[in-house]
Amino acid sequence: MPTPTDKTAPARWQIVSPSRLRPTLFARRKYWAQRFGVAPVLPMSRAEMEQLGWECCDVILVTGDAYVDHPSFGAALIGRVLEEQGFRVGIIAQPDWRSATAFACLGRPALMFGVTAGNMDSMVNLFTAEKRVRSDDAYSPNAKPGLRPERAATVYAQRCREAFPDVPVVLGGIEASLRRVAHYDYWSDKVRRSVLFDSKADLLVYGNGERQVVEIAHRLAAGEPVAALTDVRGTAVVLPTKAPRLDEIDCTTIGRRASGKHRGQVIRLPSYEAVAEDPVLYAHASRVLHLESNPGNARALLQRHGDRDLLVNAPALPLTTTELDAVYDLPFSRRPHPSYGQARIPAYEMIKCSIAIMRGCFGGCTFCSLTEHEGRIIQSRSPESVLREIASVRQKTPGFTGVISDLGGPTANMYRLACKNPLLEAACRRLSCLFPGICPNLDTDHGPLIDLYRRARQAPGVKKITIGSGVRYDLALASPAYVEELVRHHVGGYLKVAPEHSEPAPLAKMCKPGIAAFDDFRALFERFSRQAGKEQYLIPYFIAAHPGTSLRDMLALALWCKRNDFRPDQVQAFLPTPMAMATAMYHSGKNPLRPLHRRGGEEVCVARGEKERRLHKAFLRYHDPENWPALRAALLHMGRRDLIGHGRDCLVPPDRHDTRVVRSPANKA
Fold first, then answer.
1. Which tens digits make up the pLDDT trace of 260-298?
2. Which of 634, 355, 338, 366 has its CA nearest to residue 469?
3. Is residue 543 within 8 Å of residue 557, measured between CB atoms?
4. 596 and 464: one domain?
5. Is pLDDT at 594 greater than 60 in this prediction?
6. Residue 590 domain-assigned?
7. Confidence at 308, pLDDT banded by 50, 70, 90
8. How far is CA 259 from CA 263, 288, 302, in A?
9. Domain identity same for 357 and 238
10. Residue 58's CB: how many other CB atoms inside 10 A?
11. Cα–Cα dist 532/91, whole Å
12. Positive or negative CA dihedral for 502, 504, 510, 512?
């Protein structure tokens, strides 16, 4: 953590008291193995280790993805960060999990195993929202399916333990982040324990993880036992049975609030057994957890599992611009490991010419897991760092044509945006800076992003830069100059935006703006496109079957799409990912965005069964003839026969055997 006098640190983190200061990410003395230098790629075999002169690895990272030495792949990024600290890092990518043999291929690591399921939760990677097995895997060579197990983080950790029982095992990545506490699991339709208990790992890292992993590796290298590492921010650990009692705030019952301001206090959540038994108590626990997500004021959490306590420490402090720049300046080869030969890895092909300019998202969309993983504080790179990476793309990426496919992040247009008042930001417990409206304390100046776009366009070898990340259009409306810059220079014919729905009820459960904001953005987009003499289109994304969405809401959305001449091709059905607020709504039928009560509280309608969820999707695909029979039956059941016919106001055509269709006045002779 920078000192208060560090001029490169964002002002909002210069208020940290001396008692909470931490070393900057790369300030520690490097481990002795730095003498071996930088590896062209992190080794995946003993032969590669021997070429580097290593007798062993200090850290071995096990990942469910193919190893691509690119900063968009988590294992590669963490591996390069550890390498910069002087550690020898090996990679075991997509091992055969049916025995421990593949996990011993690099020998015994001197310090620890680091385990990640990959860039996606393994269950999301393997199954669709309808729980069907996916036919391909974008993170595998040639998209080959079946190269990772279900619940990969758990399986990999168990195999590491079998291979070398005395080596510490540390979980990380998005699967670990989203399953760090007792969580509802959509695929088994039950609440599961923290992944720490099932995996039997020693420590869990949540969030992006650079700070945590560097601290863990150095402390292990200094001789500390892994059992002593209970105080690392951004980690979770199972406490010993005779751990000293902590100063607790009891939030184990509905209606209990986490009052108290003492930083040393910890909040006790309802136990695993209690939330597994009571869905409403689960929603209450979800609310408490999300209110403790600001690294400026979050307190640690305790949750009982049987006779053991799970301790979830406060989130790690965000990286400063200087630290984030240093991470992305590491010597990535930006290519898949040579052992894959000519195999095509679709996820790499998609991002090989894209550049992440920031992390985090303060939108607070309830269905999105990015906030739970990356946090709400925006961490931005400097323009100089982005320009250096553009040069690296040009030099290292095979077949580079001069097109940068994205300058973005979780959201395209949150670069360098933050609270105007650092003290307010550090104390805030608001779940979204944009809902129900843009917070008046939020600085919405898009000027730095506009400047970055202009400088990037002038970089040598760059012919075109498109923005592939989703644009938060309600935020963009605060800066018409940004919308104009985007439309004139960075739209490759189509621009993705995500209104998600048209109706107020589901939008409120999503924490998304009303459809009027989309209409206003669309008007600006079309106006600036005309002025630029370009034919460009918006591609809106919608969610079917989100909690809080009735069948009549889906009908209203289908009619809105038809009026606006939108025919969605790709329709996303709501997928209840672990730990998301919308997942708590799905499981409990309650709204944890508001305080919960045992009697009363806001009810949330939920589409659960496969038939109902398919019907929600069918309304969005109203133009697909395969959906017409189901839609006709639904419209008749809803008393909306007037929407069956050939009129411009009708949603679907009649069955050719049905003569009872009501014709609209516009179609009468």
1. 555 678 999 999 999 999 999 999 999 999 999 999 999
2. 355
3. no
4. yes
5. yes
6. yes
7. very high
8. 12, 11, 15
9. no
10. 23
11. 49
12. positive
Domain range for 480: 353-537+573-604
Please give the structure tokens belonging to residue 263: 């930083």
The structure tokens listed for 74 are 């988590």
The predicted-structure confidence for 71-90, as pLDDT tens digits, reads as follows: 999 999 999 999 999 999 99
Radius of gyration (Cα) for the chain, nearest Å? Answer: 26
Residue 255: exposure state from Cβ atoms within 10 A (0-12, 13-18, ≥19): exposed
Structure tokens at 61: 């990272």
71: DSSP letter: T
- In total, the chain counts a number of residues equal to 669
Q: Is residue 341 part of a domain?
A: no
Give the torsion sign (CA, 521, 527, 532, 536). positive
Buried/exposed code over 604-640 (b: 16+ C-beta within 10 A; e: otherwise): bebbeeeeebbbbbbbbbbbbeebbebbbebbeeeee
Q: How many domains does the chain have?
A: 2
Q: Which structure tokens are listed for 99? A: 């025995």
Closest of 338, 299, 323 to residue 382, by C-alpha: 323
More confident of the two residues 488 and 15: 488
Work out the widest C-alpha separation in the chain, in whole angstroms.
89
Confidence of residue 664 (pLDDT cuts 50, 70, 90): very low
* CATH classification at residue 584: 3.30.750.210
The residue from 583, 604, 625 where one domain ends is 604
**CA-to-CA distance for 504 and 522, rounded, in angstroms?**
19
Q: Long-range contacts made by residues 95-101, C-beta under 8 angstroms, separation at least 24?
A: 95/62, 95/156, 95/159, 97/148, 97/149, 97/152, 97/155, 97/156, 97/159, 99/159, 100/159, 100/160, 100/162, 100/163, 101/163
3-state secondary structure of 354: strand
